[in-house]
Amino acid sequence: MAEIVLNKKEKKAVEKEVRHRLYIRAKKHASEFKKEFKKQLLVAVSAAFGFLMAFSWREPITNLVDLLAKNMGASGLIFYNVISALILTVVGVLFLMFMSRWATDEKK
Question: Would you say 45 and 64 are in contact if contact means Cβ atoms under 8 Å apart?
Protein backbone atom coordinates (compact mmCIF):
# COMPACT_ATOMS: atom_id res chain seq x y z
CA MET A 1 0.00 0.00 0.00
CA ALA A 2 1.38 3.36 -0.96
CA GLU A 3 1.90 5.95 1.73
CA ILE A 4 0.39 9.37 1.13
CA VAL A 5 2.86 12.19 1.52
CA LEU A 6 1.55 15.59 2.57
CA ASN A 7 3.40 18.84 2.72
CA LYS A 8 3.36 21.02 5.88
CA LYS A 9 0.43 23.14 4.73
CA GLU A 10 -1.69 20.09 3.94
CA LYS A 11 -0.76 18.43 7.25
CA LYS A 12 -1.82 21.55 9.16
CA ALA A 13 -5.10 21.67 7.25
CA VAL A 14 -5.80 17.99 8.03
CA GLU A 15 -4.88 18.46 11.70
CA LYS A 16 -7.11 21.52 11.91
CA GLU A 17 -10.04 19.61 10.39
CA VAL A 18 -9.51 16.67 12.77
CA ARG A 19 -9.40 19.01 15.79
CA HIS A 20 -12.53 20.77 14.58
CA ARG A 21 -14.44 17.49 14.16
CA LEU A 22 -13.31 16.29 17.59
CA TYR A 23 -14.40 19.60 19.12
CA ILE A 24 -17.85 19.37 17.52
CA ARG A 25 -18.24 15.79 18.72
CA ALA A 26 -17.10 16.61 22.26
CA LYS A 27 -19.42 19.62 22.41
CA LYS A 28 -22.38 17.47 21.34
CA HIS A 29 -21.64 14.84 24.00
CA ALA A 30 -21.16 17.51 26.66
CA SER A 31 -24.52 19.05 25.76
CA GLU A 32 -26.25 15.67 25.97
CA PHE A 33 -24.58 14.96 29.32
CA LYS A 34 -25.68 18.35 30.66
CA LYS A 35 -29.30 17.71 29.66
CA GLU A 36 -29.33 14.24 31.22
CA PHE A 37 -27.62 15.53 34.37
CA LYS A 38 -30.27 18.23 34.79
CA LYS A 39 -33.01 15.68 34.23
CA GLN A 40 -31.63 13.28 36.84
CA LEU A 41 -30.96 16.11 39.28
CA LEU A 42 -34.57 17.24 38.93
CA VAL A 43 -35.77 13.71 39.72
CA ALA A 44 -33.51 13.43 42.77
CA VAL A 45 -34.38 16.87 44.13
CA SER A 46 -38.09 16.28 43.52
CA ALA A 47 -37.95 13.02 45.44
CA ALA A 48 -36.07 14.64 48.30
CA PHE A 49 -38.47 17.57 48.54
CA GLY A 50 -41.43 15.22 48.22
CA PHE A 51 -40.17 13.23 51.18
CA LEU A 52 -39.54 16.39 53.21
CA MET A 53 -42.98 17.77 52.42
CA ALA A 54 -44.69 14.51 53.30
CA PHE A 55 -42.72 14.30 56.52
CA SER A 56 -43.50 17.91 57.45
CA TRP A 57 -47.22 17.39 56.80
CA ARG A 58 -47.36 14.27 58.96
CA GLU A 59 -48.14 16.02 62.24
CA PRO A 60 -50.67 18.56 60.88
CA ILE A 61 -52.51 15.80 59.02
CA THR A 62 -52.53 13.62 62.12
CA ASN A 63 -54.01 16.46 64.17
CA LEU A 64 -56.58 17.30 61.48
CA VAL A 65 -57.70 13.69 61.16
CA ASP A 66 -57.96 13.36 64.94
CA LEU A 67 -60.10 16.52 65.04
CA LEU A 68 -62.32 15.28 62.21
CA ALA A 69 -62.69 11.88 63.84
CA LYS A 70 -63.72 13.45 67.15
CA ASN A 71 -66.21 15.80 65.47
CA MET A 72 -67.74 12.98 63.43
CA GLY A 73 -67.86 10.64 66.37
CA ALA A 74 -65.64 8.15 64.60
CA SER A 75 -62.63 6.60 66.14
CA GLY A 76 -60.15 3.93 65.38
CA LEU A 77 -56.90 3.39 63.63
CA ILE A 78 -58.47 2.23 60.36
CA PHE A 79 -60.40 5.49 59.92
CA TYR A 80 -57.27 7.50 60.63
CA ASN A 81 -55.20 5.46 58.17
CA VAL A 82 -57.75 5.81 55.36
CA ILE A 83 -58.17 9.56 55.80
CA SER A 84 -54.40 10.11 56.07
CA ALA A 85 -53.75 8.03 52.96
CA LEU A 86 -56.39 9.95 50.99
CA ILE A 87 -55.06 13.34 52.02
CA LEU A 88 -51.45 12.39 51.30
CA THR A 89 -52.42 10.90 47.96
CA VAL A 90 -54.23 14.06 46.88
CA VAL A 91 -51.32 16.25 47.96
CA GLY A 92 -48.83 13.92 46.26
CA VAL A 93 -50.77 13.80 42.99
CA LEU A 94 -51.10 17.59 42.92
CA PHE A 95 -47.37 17.95 43.55
CA LEU A 96 -46.48 15.47 40.81
CA MET A 97 -48.82 17.21 38.37
CA PHE A 98 -47.19 20.54 39.16
CA MET A 99 -43.67 19.13 38.76
CA SER A 100 -44.59 17.40 35.51
CA ARG A 101 -46.05 20.59 34.08
CA TRP A 102 -43.01 22.55 35.24
CA ALA A 103 -40.60 20.05 33.63
CA THR A 104 -42.44 20.13 30.29
CA ASP A 105 -42.48 23.94 30.31
CA GLU A 106 -38.68 23.87 30.58
CA LYS A 107 -38.43 21.82 27.37
CA LYS A 108 -40.38 24.35 25.30
Answer: no
- Tell me the pLDDT of the chain (108 aa) as tens digits: 668 888 899 899 999 999 999 999 999 999 999 889 988 988 898 888 888 887 887 888 778 777 877 787 766 667 777 777 888 888 888 988 887 887 777 555
- For 60-97, letters b (16+ CB in 10 Å) and e give ebeeebeeeeeeeeeeeeeebeebbeeeeeeeeeeeee
pLDDT computed for residue 67 by the predictor: 81
Burial of 42 (0-12, 13-18, 19+ CB in 10 A): middle
Task: Give domain limits for the chain.
Answer: 8-107
Cβ(82)–Cβ(56) below 8 Å? no
What are the DSSP calls for 56-87, one per residue? HHHHHHHHHHHHHHHHHT--SHHHHHHHHHHH
How far apart (Å, rounded) are the C-alpha atoms in residues 54 and 12? 62
